[in-house]
Design a protein that fits this description.
The structure is a homotetramer.
Chain A (H helix, E strand, L loop, with lengths): L4 E5 L3 H12 L3 E5 L11 H7 L5 E4 L5 H13 L5 E4 L5 H12 L4 E8 L4 H4 L2 E5 L2 H6 L1 H7 L7 E5 L3 H29 L6 H7 L9 H12 L15 H11 L5 H13 L5 H14 L8
Parallel strand pairs in A: 1-2, 1-3, 3-4, 4-5, 6-7
Antiparallel strand pairs in A: 5-6
Helix pairs in contact in A: 8-11, 8-12
Chain lengths: ~300, ~300, ~300, ~300
Amino acid sequence: MTAMKLGLIGLGKMGGNMRERIRQAGHTVIGYDRDPELSDVGSLTELVAGLEGPRVVWVMVPAGGPTQSVVDELGDLLEAGDTVVDGGNSRWTDDEKHAEELAAKGIGFVDAGVSGGVWGLENGYALMVGGDKEHVDRLQPIFEALKPEGPYGYVHAGKVGAGHFSKMVHNGIEYAMMQAYAEGWELLQAADSVTDVREIFRSWEQGTVIRSWLLDLAVNALDKDEHLEQLRGYAEDSGEGRWTVEAAIDNAVPLPAITASLFARFASRQDDSPQMKMIAALRNQFGGHSVESAK
Amino acid sequence: MTAMKLGLIGLGKMGGNMRERIRQAGHTVIGYDRDPELSDVGSLTELVAGLEGPRVVWVMVPAGGPTQSVVDELGDLLEAGDTVVDGGNSRWTDDEKHAEELAAKGIGFVDAGVSGGVWGLENGYALMVGGDKEHVDRLQPIFEALKPEGPYGYVHAGKVGAGHFSKMVHNGIEYAMMQAYAEGWELLQAADSVTDVREIFRSWEQGTVIRSWLLDLAVNALDKDEHLEQLRGYAEDSGEGRWTVEAAIDNAVPLPAITASLFARFASRQDDSPQMKMIAALRNQFGGHSVESAK
Amino acid sequence: MTAMKLGLIGLGKMGGNMRERIRQAGHTVIGYDRDPELSDVGSLTELVAGLEGPRVVWVMVPAGGPTQSVVDELGDLLEAGDTVVDGGNSRWTDDEKHAEELAAKGIGFVDAGVSGGVWGLENGYALMVGGDKEHVDRLQPIFEALKPEGPYGYVHAGKVGAGHFSKMVHNGIEYAMMQAYAEGWELLQAADSVTDVREIFRSWEQGTVIRSWLLDLAVNALDKDEHLEQLRGYAEDSGEGRWTVEAAIDNAVPLPAITASLFARFASRQDDSPQMKMIAALRNQFGGHSVESAK
Amino acid sequence: MTAMKLGLIGLGKMGGNMRERIRQAGHTVIGYDRDPELSDVGSLTELVAGLEGPRVVWVMVPAGGPTQSVVDELGDLLEAGDTVVDGGNSRWTDDEKHAEELAAKGIGFVDAGVSGGVWGLENGYALMVGGDKEHVDRLQPIFEALKPEGPYGYVHAGKVGAGHFSKMVHNGIEYAMMQAYAEGWELLQAADSVTDVREIFRSWEQGTVIRSWLLDLAVNALDKDEHLEQLRGYAEDSGEGRWTVEAAIDNAVPLPAITASLFARFASRQDDSPQMKMIAALRNQFGGHSVESAK
């Protein structure tokens, strides 16, 4: 293995752990974060100065404005022959813009979808990468350091954008898988004949068609709180589920289960449902059905 | 027109108004209800005694047990050649049972789906009828009295069960139409650029593809309460939406919009969503995403 | 009524009929179309020259590129104080761009969603309008000419974009209403007990909760072809259904019935379903279930 | 371990493998099948005669009529104190009937949902069991023989019916998980930027949130046929998905993702979609949109 020197921007929950895993693999990482407690250097300029050409800088900041700002700054600080990797949760449609902006200065661009969450430091991060082969190849030692051991967990998915697109679809699938277990759990909880839903879930962890890591996590959660009484049925969405549905619409691909899962999250966040007010109003209009008044 | 003599069992909101409309058409109605204040006679025996053979008795009581009891009683009280009409909201699968039970005694059976709600007394009731031609024909004067004027509002839909089946599908369609307006209303309410959703709905009442009686009712409701602030987003379901989905499953017919409308009602009645607790639990497990605690 | 002089660009099926209806109301219309057979003038320059300031020009060309081109040209040809109306099917997100571009030259902008299809010439067009009051007011005589008689069919829905947004939601609702009737029709066709689905639909045209203009059209279609045997189950989508779902996603509004209707159209256009190939492959993998080979 | 003697009725793909696995564990199995080539004995009478009281007989025949027949016959052949296990895919609502029928003769009843498919012989079968503790306990050595090694793969889920109910929900979850991967696969296949969908799926097998046994199977399938060109997008359903949705309706539990998955299978089996014919007919009616003619 060739030890590399990497600039890493963004040292939050994900970035911080990634810095540690890359260092454990023997590479040098200069990390920058706006929080001085986390940062190795005082500025992006300092970070760039600490690297030698051809430089490689990994960006791990929130999608949208923050990533755009960092890409703009790096465009000014880096030189032709350097490479920028966006490992954040950017929308794939941003990647081509960033690639063009940097390409105008001779700087390479790679997009990397990163999966693994809080377990990544220990187990490795699954990586889905998009970009030109020459840029992707330059990053290979870092990808090796981050990915899980063994033949899986890394793919060069296609050209610029394909990494984030693949990660986005991964998350869309994740939404529907979670929804699948959640629907099954609610139905079992509702059934009279069933006495121990947690043990049913546990029994499924081996030998069944539906065994999975998510199922293992569900059992972990039920072991902490058998009926999830400590939680509210409220779920945020990170944006990637939305983009998945939008990409499906762009491509005229029907996506009923993933979209149902996204909508279930939207609904979970409403204190009262405006659309169901209208249903109640209509029922009252034509049938004289009684309605419930707002509190 | 031949004036008829009809027995009518069940004089609630629907049955009471139907009695009035049939009488207004010049027929004689002997009505029975468990509530003596509503009833013309003291018992079913008395009702049957007041009719002359071949007797015609219209049953307008709640589906399931109550209808079954009345059919059983009528089987004992009536004679061969008489006819029973079930105009309640029975599940179509009950009709064949009732028809067989009565046919064993030579009594005819007709099932009638009745639409029109509280507006039926004035506008007439739409009728969907199932049964053998000979039994249906006998009822024709009563059907004429109940239905709206003009060429619509009545159909002999097929054999026994077809009347309630058609009414059930009518209600399934109704669920999805209501859901359609409700979704559109919520989306317009959420849009920044839109300032007057009620007037948009009102403008649609003529000249648009989506004009309908339900739309008129929606505007009525918004005129009473522009943002439906007096209502809670809570909707019961009467059973016919459930049966529609079950019939679709029996026939392997995909019914995505109607089923989505039914599920939206189920969800509207949950104070907290068990399945979304599981989603929250899983997000917390793999991503360390924060969760909201139950109150 | 003040007779107005209007420039109208785009004289296709919609624009041509609108020209006729506006003229019938006593206004002067100078129409331009790329097809010289339809056009009143030879060029946009000629059209603008034929109007007197403050000029009003109605654009009725396909959304996207064509509308953008015309707006650009009009920006060059018109003068401060003139007004442009986009009555095409533009996405509401385009409206603000167009308004800003024209406002920079002192030209007003109004967006108008127009419903009514081939029936509009006779019955009038429902109009949903967005823009500043001063620009909208200037158009009032034209809106009066186009809209149906009576108190409906016109609304000033809000600021720029609100007209197209409202029309888009109208179309989203339309998708789900059509899907509602279509699902009900398929289920009735599949039921053993039902003998005459067309007459059931016809009976619903009056006295029912689900009576509507779309239902009337369904009966018209069934009168021409009782079992729709002449048609293939294939449906295009015009874009507005897609935008409705995207707007819902932007606003975190769950839209299950409308989205299901859109996805049903996507699926209808696939000769074979890639996702169902994967389902078949998985069933074969774990269960040894037999699969059907591609033809 | 106490070696047991078990009667096993139904030696098809599942039953045959289960006989082998139980024998490998050291128990004696007398198998009966209508196919003499597979059967150990010539009749049920002979099978029962070969066992000693208290006898245990495992039924592994198709749900519905065949299972009912065998239960009826066993009711006549067995004696008080014996136990019948239904390990087939019976609907949970049948279990209570069977239990009552046998209880009237003092015969115990246990329902067992069995998962594992063609891989069960080697890996073990996951078992979900319902019934009274005394009957379930008697079967423990057989359950031990069938289940996978380790702490998972077996649960006593509740009273009679709970085993099949749990297995049914397992299969409902399975439908939605398969649909999740299938939707993601179709979307990736449709994306321009993505060049190697199979390798993306393979990369997900480790380190991702969505890793699972079904994902492994998907990769197996893609390794045999990268774009699934040999398959048609056609999927049967075994009944348990339907029952899951029906159980959800009974319990007023919204099940959008699982139901969407079921409906996608229904649609996959239609050569042409009746409901989309109606959509096409309506579009033609109001918009003059062109339609595609049936072939």
